[in-house]
């Protein structure tokens, strides 16, 4: 009951913030929570779309204005940004639509797209399409993964906290690993 109240009070806000800054892990967790009935899948998808879209718009406009300075702050970002710029120059529309599906490029790619001179109105439209597809596919996949997991485990209720805790731990480990790798290359 305490978990349910916490999610009702802060779950969608946490989802918005999580998808604004990163995305994948928190959206998968929210999709699973929607399966368990703690959140509504439609709201999960909508909030994930708005969070992702807003965050990517911010990074794009920062890239247009301060792209080189942002990328120069960390050598790893510089390398990734240069690689991202190569991709954007070859297939700009494809990358705007799909970058959020490529792990590790979520923050750097919108900066590179902004830096490349990609037209703002076109980015607004194609980034929106990419964000809604991403939120729908990943949120729904996590929701339906919950039903597969329940089918395999039987009554998932008795494993709920363990699965939820496991997902949180896995997400935290990925985040820590990424931060540790970033600090070693900087």
From TrEMBL:
<dbReference type="GO" id="GO:0005886">
    <property type="term" value="C:plasma membrane"/>
</dbReference>
<dbReference type="Pfam" id="PF09335">
    <property type="entry name" value="VTT_dom"/>
</dbReference>
<feature type="domain" description="VTT">
    <location>
        <begin position="23"/>
        <end position="138"/>
    </location>
</feature>
<keyword id="KW-0812">Transmembrane</keyword>
<dbReference type="InterPro" id="IPR032816">
    <property type="entry name" value="VTT_dom"/>
</dbReference>
<feature type="transmembrane region" description="Helical">
    <location>
        <begin position="159"/>
        <end position="176"/>
    </location>
</feature>
<keyword id="KW-1133">Transmembrane helix</keyword>
<dbReference type="InterPro" id="IPR051311">
    <property type="entry name" value="DedA_domain"/>
</dbReference>
<feature type="transmembrane region" description="Helical">
    <location>
        <begin position="41"/>
        <end position="62"/>
    </location>
</feature>
<keyword id="KW-0472">Membrane</keyword>
<feature type="transmembrane region" description="Helical">
    <location>
        <begin position="124"/>
        <end position="147"/>
    </location>
</feature>
<protein>
    <submittedName>
        <fullName>DedA family protein</fullName>
    </submittedName>
</protein>
<feature type="transmembrane region" description="Helical">
    <location>
        <begin position="12"/>
        <end position="35"/>
    </location>
</feature>
